[in-house]
Give the backbone structure.
Amino acid sequence: MTIFNAFDFISLIDLLGTFAFAVSGIKLASRQRMDWFGAYIIGLVTAIGGGTVRDVLLDTDLFWIEDPTYLTTTAVALVTAIIFNKRLFRLGRTLFIFDTIGLGLFTVVGIEKSLEVGLPFWACIGMGAVTGSVGGVIRDILINEVPLLFRQDIYALACIAGGLVYFGLFQLNCSPMVIGLISAFTVIFIRLVAVKYHIHLPTLKTMGEE
Amino acid sequence: MTIFNAFDFISLIDLLGTFAFAVSGIKLASRQRMDWFGAYIIGLVTAIGGGTVRDVLLDTDLFWIEDPTYLTTTAVALVTAIIFNKRLFRLGRTLFIFDTIGLGLFTVVGIEKSLEVGLPFWACIGMGAVTGSVGGVIRDILINEVPLLFRQDIYALACIAGGLVYFGLFQLNCSPMVIGLISAFTVIFIRLVAVKYHIHLPTLKTMGEE
Amino acid sequence: MTIFNAFDFISLIDLLGTFAFAVSGIKLASRQRMDWFGAYIIGLVTAIGGGTVRDVLLDTDLFWIEDPTYLTTTAVALVTAIIFNKRLFRLGRTLFIFDTIGLGLFTVVGIEKSLEVGLPFWACIGMGAVTGSVGGVIRDILINEVPLLFRQDIYALACIAGGLVYFGLFQLNCSPMVIGLISAFTVIFIRLVAVKYHIHLPTLKTMGEE
């Protein structure tokens, strides 16, 4: 695969991941009987929220500020949702795969952007998890629910596991491409396995009233 | 009108808009039976939240950080609300006019600040809408309701329409004053018409449970 | 007390305050039956959220980005909560003291960081209150409740009173150490007295339906 193709491939994953993230937001918005504009904004925030918070925390330029692709991809997601509605929903499994692949990619992008800024490795791992999961948290705040993240933990934990693998391979001097691919794959693998086998962390026992 | 008067005029609109935004926050806080301090903070966040998020995203100085006017205007709004209470509420139509004029002004200010930073035009339009509407979104999150924005769409759409008019006139090389005035007027006009005739976008059909 | 010891003392208060803030988040998370990871994140956000928002608004480096102490302290808080559970809760009064002392310290740190950036004094006072109280606000948003801050006002008002004392002493040319200590003590004293004697601001009367 030439470098040109590698870039194409990453852009394609980025697009599919953005699309899947946006659809997850639009779907939740539809349950709240929001109008088209509200659904668009919820979809957009789900897709770009994590990277935006990361860029604000890193004090770097917003990744979408020169590139309208994310806005148009979200618009395509909305139009698809309006036209196909329940048929789009029946693609649940396919969207879940896109979403999970996007999660892997977004995590690696978040780690690499943090490395460039010179953060220590544990902060890079945190920023990878922020990139992957904060969009969904903002989505849940906007539709006024307790964020799913705090109940469906493996999501962000998969990002953290991918981050640990990243820095393990980094120590071993692997090539950037190899590190990125294996880390993203780790995120994807852990999430798929966790969802398939209903693996989750224990619940914290109630500590009583105040 | 001399430049001096123009500035005075804009400052006056800014004050009235800030006052109306703050009152909208304080009114919602009063329904939650908040105390004076809580109501003040909700009012302040409604008034300055949109511009603050814009300035954080643009990575520019916060517009209120050298100018206590916004804090004092919110304080005046709170005192007015405490003293006049329901009589202030009966001014609903007047406050709505202030609020809408403020929305037009805030949108134009948001676009112009983004232009100065060198953003592409579609991002400037987005920042105009952020400036006008995100304060209300944060207000609704704080009082734990699904943001009105996602149900009462024409609010942010009016900002976007005003932004499109802005860049249309910009292409035609109109003077900055003319561009600003007509764009702000567009926002105001669309919102007034949409509210008067109950115009709204279609609701997205529920896409089913997951 | 030598300077070395003074630093040690401040670090110790910082640790205890962080621990108490984290526990307050973890306790609320436990009532929502969150899992361990969710509880950890809520605890962490409660502990570092105020300072993070302050640093984003000031456009300075995030205070925790080079120092993993806050992450590990929150981890210790979580492990303690898992192991001791209700026995930790029975320490309510002790935790309250830690939390209040932490509030005093965080407020002063927020004011001093803002002074360094050159903000006017009223903005420094605001940033002190942001540092002390915004973590709890984000915590309450994440667990989907109306922030306690808006009902339990004396919390943020104590920060503001401490800030006023800070600038009063600043005018009198007191030494930085004295200013810091007395201001922090003011915050602590006001909060303790307000809680003990159930002092609170009046509630705003409902301003009617729209």
About this structure: Residues 25 and 42 of chain B are 5 Å apart (CA to CA). The two ends of chain B are 60 Å apart (CA to CA). Residues 3-31 of chain B form the longest helix (29 residues). Chain B has eight helices and no strands.
